[in-house]
Amino acid sequence: MEAIEQMPAGILPASTVPPAESCVLRYVLERWSVEKEQQVFLVAQDGQTWTFGELHREVVRTANGLRALGVAQGDFVLSWLPNGIDALLVWFGLNYLGAVYVPINTAYRGRLLEQVIANSGARLMVAHAKLVPLLSEIDTAKLEQIVALQGDAGRKLRDIRILPPTAIASGTQTPPSLERQIQPWDTQSIIYTSGTTGPSKGVLSSYLHLFAIGESNTSLSDRDRFLVNLPMFHVSGTAWIYAMLIRGGSVALVESFRSDEFWDTVRRTRSTTTQLLGVMAQFLLKQPPSASDRDHSLRSGLIIPLAEDNQEFSSRFGVDIFTIYNMTELPVPIGSEINPSNPRSCGKVRAGIQVRIVDENDCEVPVGEVGELIVRAERPWTISHGYHNRPDATAAAWRNGWFHTGDAFRCSESGDFYFVDRIKDAIRRRGENISSFEVETAICEHPAVKEAAAIGVPSKDGEQEVLAVVTLAPGSTIDPAELIRFLQDRLPHFMIPKYVRIIPELPKTPTQKIQKLALRETGITQDTWDRESDPTISIRRQRLEAAGRTS
Hints:
551 residues
């Protein structure tokens, strides 16, 4: 399953390591500050704009401030900030010194926050002042100093010095010197995973890794402005900022996605492209049609994952769309064409990447069968080089020289790849393997549904039954029997949920991933609806049985 498409002209051969001047943040920023000094790179949420020249001057000031606090090349520094100019300056300032940017999810609390701080080994944190008091409740490990931005941090924290914003706002405009040149394979950042199946792991990313993600989107040019509305403590936030930096384009940076403000934000910032999670796209589609639906500057959008109504999104809003498969550790190994006719597929393998679909012994499965997707790249350092201070997890992920994704896939004869499920989330019912992802996608096509999680719960007959846990769109109601009837024409009979539970909100990790483990632990509750106890569904079930298709 080798790459089946060629890289466009102007892109380096897949195995070539680009020079530091084209992929290392410090050198790229220095180049654009001269060649594009007056060109806007950043449009902030409040409308403030920064040119490459202005950004470079502020980054140098921030880097000198960090240097004065003892930050040296290779040091790990925590950033606990929401999207915005401050978060961008801390990230760029650290990398300008050759130090490592370690962002923390702003929703982290308690034990999870404590584990991440301890794992990082950092002695310095830059944080939003309102978050600092939360550190009084936990063991802050080796932390010695905290720079508090955007307000009063309140009381002191044991032996930790709380410093004002001026501590990293040096007046010195002379670029700080380096002990050695920053190399493409040096560690640029540590991004922590969602922790859905265990403690969050710190993904080590080189400059080449983030460069490779940005390079994968070959439709971007220096004329584009990427609307970044996903958090900068996620690769989805950092990667596209970096993609526009290496191209000499621009970004519009907002704190978060709001469906009721999205198109106004696009118009105000004159953004040309963006990334949306599948649920975000659904929120936009479920808004009432408007005469201004096509009155905007957005020309393309990356949507992960696509749904069956992707063509409706494209035609209604006049936006070209595509999708990819990626995870924090990877450099976008699989991607689709523009406006794909097959929304179920993630696309094909891109040039420079090798993938296999294997069984539990790493033996390749036949085409069309389901197995685990494993990946490696021709260019060194373009996949994460491990998990910070977790040699056990690194060895497990990288066994036999391939990175193991933990995701179940199948591949067609034509080379199209289909995501099936997280391996740990797959459901087994009466001899059939069920993709929770496919069940959830079908449920979310109902206009009353906001989000859904499909999980396996124990069956009295052995194996499992399917439980659908659903939240509703604002102002909507739905009868579980109606939902089942809606699914009968969209799913194979064995995938239709036996149980439906409607709740106000799904439990989520701080990175907004659904906590299916928590739902499994809760299991069947008193308010869970059972379709076998509903007479209208029982009639339908009898008809299915009579036709030899019992569900």
